[in-house]
Amino acid sequence: xxxxxxxxxxxxxxxxxxxxxxxxxxxxxxxxxxxxxxxxxxxxxxxxxxxxxxxxxxxxxxxxxxxxxxxxxxxxxxxxxxxxxxxxxxxxxxxxxxxxxxxxxxxxxxxxxxxxxxxxxxxxxxxxxxxxxxxxxxxxxxxxxxxxxxxxxxxxxxxxxxxxxxxxxxxxxxxxxxxxxxxxxxxxxxxxxxxxxxxxxxxxxxxxxxxxxxxxxxxxxxxxxxxxxxxxxxxxxxxxxxxxxxxxxxxxxxxxxxxxxxxxxxxxxxxxxxxxxxxxxxxxxxxxxxxxxxxxxxxxxxxxxxxxxxxxxxxxxxxxxxxxxxxxxxxxxxxxxxxxxxxxxxxxxxxxxxxxxxxxxxxxxxxxxxxxxxxxxxxxxxxxxxxxxxxxxxxxxxxxxxxxxxxxxxxxxxxxxxxxxxxxxxxxxxxxxxxxxxxxxxxxxxxxxxxxxxxxxxxxxxxxxxxxxxxxxxxxxxxxxxxxxxxxxxxxxxxxxxxxxxxxxxxxxxxxxxxxxxxxxxxxxxxxxxxxxxxxxxxxxxxxxxxxxxxxxxxxxxxxxxxxxxxxxxxxxxxxxxxxxxxxxxxxxxxxxxxxxxxxxxxxxxxxxxxxxxxxxxxxxxxxxxxxxxxxxxxxxxxxxxxxxxxxx
Length: 649
Fold this sequence. Notes:
Elements: H1 5-26, H2 126-135, H3 151-166, H4 171-183, E1 197-212, E2 217-218, E3 223-224, E4 237-250, E5 253-264, H5 272-282, E6 305-319, E7 322-328, E8 351-357, H6 366-370, E9 373-381, E10 392-403, E11 406-416, H7 426-434, H8 441-444, E12 452-462, E13 470-479, E14 492-499, E15 509-517, E16 542-543, E17 546-547, E18 557-568, E19 571-582, E20 591-603, E21 608-621, E22 625-640, E23 645-647
Helix pairs in contact: 2-4, 3-4
């Protein structure tokens, strides 16, 4: 049969139309566009055996598409996404946590960056587990020296590393991932729909602590028996905290509130003579009202405490990767676990206004060299100061991640103003913010005083050849220097090494060792009048009498070590050792402090956490009590994490 030109054209069009219909019928998930054989997932496969799809998150606008390979269509060509299967997990394995995510579910069009999110308290179990994932080679987008993180920023970190964790043979990393996704399941509801309104009680807890023997509660001079605990009161005898937290998120707004009842027993405290001696040494004299009593000096007798206190209370608005908030927020600015030189939760949080870049920021050209950037700024007032009264403070930090194995950051804290000293004006604020010159004595006591300025530099580095086994880090702070790098002899520091795992059956065991020194070998450091102290801001780096930075305090040397065995993704048992020494040129006859602690964190079911620790402490402080003093403390805390309420939109 012979066809004319018109018939040939009709035949060609029919063939093209049939081919288009065939391609359209096979272009669904699970099919290969360039393969004549159609392969479907086994009908017997469990949902947890597949890698489910989460909403895509890539804040990097400079992200480049991979080069096109021969025979491999690009995503823009509507190529089907392959279904990756994993071996079946054990019945109680981590796979169960992912059943709620459906690969075929439509993704809501609203950008994840438009959703506000509450901060995670820095004493949460989430941070040590995220830090462990980081040390094992995952969540490389985490800025470990800038905490707190928001709930959604952690979700975004997990999204970027989730496939790598699930496709690895690291069962512990998969367990941690499952525990974390279970915690944040309300941030990404089943089916990848819009989060809607999230609200309810986030936690309810009670802690009972009994202490037998004399304690230390003076971070500005002698030391502390309990550190990094939001400045909560404690004394020999029975102590208790009972509290709750609420979490509320809707659109760009979030509100987090944590409050608690606090009880501590009565104590003896310092004698009048000792209190006056320490005040004279600090120059907070005359030791009489309004300089008596002082929060930095626990003069006795110490009455029992029964009070309600807000630990955190923050209203935030999310804008272009930032959380803009007001209220009480945590801050932990440093890579260490035992302390942070610039800011920690050793003291009670301050009320502040805050602008925090919570998502990585990519700057064209600059980020190719320096990597993504985050920054944090907050401004507030300090309480418990008498000379001058109620000064103000502001902190700003910039952190960079040039490679997935190296991070570094710069931070600055300035304490300025206060009743009876320089008035707080835009001029004094900007002078402290931008001025890099030394301050003369005349300027220091005038209206031109830029304030007490402290600069911090920190870094962390996963060591070559043992990237997933060892990490080195350091945190340094200096007084009246542009950065500790410019004057290392004048800097105080905390440095550490983290061994994240051991060979063989000890992979769940890790070791962390940190050393601290706030006694640099320079003349001004004597008498405690250098690090965390200032000639005008005489009660220095404190809020309500407690050091806001590293609990090591002024002019001291010491360190900490932790040996931790991880039982599961949110459970562990830990041994800790702490030591601190203060020289006699600061505290007459010096001080020595040693602690041994064992801690257990265990889940009693899915929603109940048990945290218990037993601590022995021995200390010497002849200026306070003669002879070797000992105390034993035991604590049990139960925390309930109820299910949050969810209103879809």
